[in-house]
């Protein structure tokens, strides 16, 4: 079983930037894809982006393209760079790991989840 731990959340003013990190541990060899999701109070969980650990292919949801970047700085870390943050980006951000390749934006594609890290953007 793989474990995931997010870090890097915090409070920032609108227009600022934050970079979140997701550290994988345990049986990481089974993980083929890592994604970021977020959930704001009163909203459903939504897919932010994902990266394929084999091909390096990345996805970012359309509404966040140009501001959010997902990368893998080393084998067991996945980063989410968030730029020009807006108040509506405030949410708890989760990373998730998948054993199989399926639709990246579906939470059901992932078998392991981190505890989440809070991002608060103020105006």
List keywords for this structure.
globular; 123 residues; 53% strand
Shape: globular
Which segments are poorly predicted (pLDDT under 50) over 5 or more consecutive residues?
Answer: none
Derived from helix and strand composition plus strand pairing, the structural class reads mainly beta
- Written as H for each helix and E for each strand, in order along the chain, the element string is EEEEEEEEEEE
Tally of strands: 11
Specify the number of helices.
Answer: 0
Biggest pleated sheet: 7 strands, mixed
Percentage of residues in DSSP E strands:
over 45%
Mean pLDDT: 96
Distance between the termini: 40 Å
Radius of gyration: 13 Å
Could you estimate the helical fraction of the residues in percent? under 10%
Care to describe what's here?
The protein is mainly β and 123 residues long. It has no helices and eleven strands. Strands 2, 4, 5, 6, 9, 10 and 11 form a seven-stranded mixed sheet that branches. The chain has a four-stranded antiparallel sheet with strand order 1-3-8-7, with no helix packed on it. The mean pLDDT is 96.
Produce a short descriptive summary.
This protein is mainly beta.
SSE topology sketch:
Layout (H helix, E strand, L loop, with lengths): L1 E6 L2 E4 L4 E9 L6 E7 L6 E7 L5 E3 L7 E7 L2 E6 L8 E8 L13 E2 L3 E6 L1
Parallel strand pairs: 2-11
Antiparallel strand pairs: 1-3, 3-8, 4-5, 4-9, 5-6, 7-8, 9-10, 9-11
